Amino acid sequence: MTQSPAQLAQALAARDRRALARAITLVESARPEHRAQARALLAALPRDRQALRIGITGTPGVGKSTFIEAFGLMLADAGLRLAVLAVDPSSARSGGSILGDKTRMERLSRHPDAFIRPSPSQATLGGLARRSREVVGLFEASGCDVVLIETVGVGQSETVVADLCDVFLLLLAPAGGDELQGVKRGIMELADLIVVNKADGDLLPAAQRTAGDYAGALRLLRPRAEDAPGFPRTRLVSALTGAGLAETWGDIQDLARFRRDHGHWAARRADQARRWFLDDLRQGLTGLMDSPPLKDHVAAAARQVAAGQATPDEAAQALLARIAFR
pLDDT tens across 115-131, in order? Predict the structure, then answer.
């Protein structure tokens, strides 16, 4: 690394795209020396810049990348600086990203006001990569107006993305009642906007029925204080024709404006920061189990449990007491 963390932070604040790419690579690195530099970089970033963070998840085959490219092009052509964090499933062998979003979003990747960063999930639960939070912070520091966060896909732990975004979109394809049964209730409860994609051609009637089904399901959910009147809601969209994209952006802006004006935006960001701190603390404490001398004590306690000399709970409590008074 030729630049110090402070120099890299200055270049990032000056909207240097190469500096942004280098900063993301540094933050995503797991090497101990890089982690120290990454912490110094994050500490040096300006804290007065906020982008509109939009989380996007959806069932496999729904067309997330196609939607993001069409939606992103509309925003970038309107003069907004856009960043896309596309989290893909990791290769079990290399740990790298299986699918390249820069090839699936070819037109958007060439736009001068758009920056796309594919990121392998590396088996991290929640549809996000391990350092997604820090990468989004880099996007904001570099002056991005909007950050689109594409998750791996709808799953049991996919709701983690709600702790990173300001507005959460659930993208669905035209389908029947089976689709409604297959979507997790947790996702439904967190979604701010349900977008039914592929609402064009022969699929338009099915898309309209799907939107109606979900609109009915949303009415059964308990209202949230942070929701503007009429939210959460459904929206029909065609990423191919562009129909509904402007209306979707209008919905997002309306909801974001309501949350800013009523204090929910600041409260949500503060709550997210607290959760991130606790998450990092838990992961750090878990990591201590693999570091000496605690590693040896854990191994010894595990042998006692395996030999029947102590119960799992008894051994765990004894080890926790030793850690607390070390």
Answer: 999 876 554 444 455 68
CATH top-level class of 47-262? alpha beta
pTM: 0.86
Using CB atoms within 10 A of its CB, is residue 151 exposed (0-12), middle (13-18) or buried (19+)? buried
Closest to 58 (Cα-Cα) out of 145, 148, 129: 148
Q: Quick one: which of 212, 173, 208, 168 has its CA closest to 57?
A: 168
* DSSP-assigned states of every residue in 243-302: TTHHHHHHHHHHHHHHHHHTTHHHHHHHHHHHHHHHHHHHHHHHHHTTSTTHHHHHHHHH
Render pLDDT for 119-177 as a digit per residue (tens, 0 to 9): 765 544 444 556 888 999 999 999 999 999 988 665 544 567 778 899 999 999 997 54
CATH number listed for the domain at residues 1-45: 1.20.5
Q: Where are the alpha helices (DSSP H) in the chain?
A: 5-13, 17-28, 32-44, 64-77, 101-104, 106-109, 132-141, 177-182, 185-190, 204-218, 245-261, 264-288, 294-306, 312-324
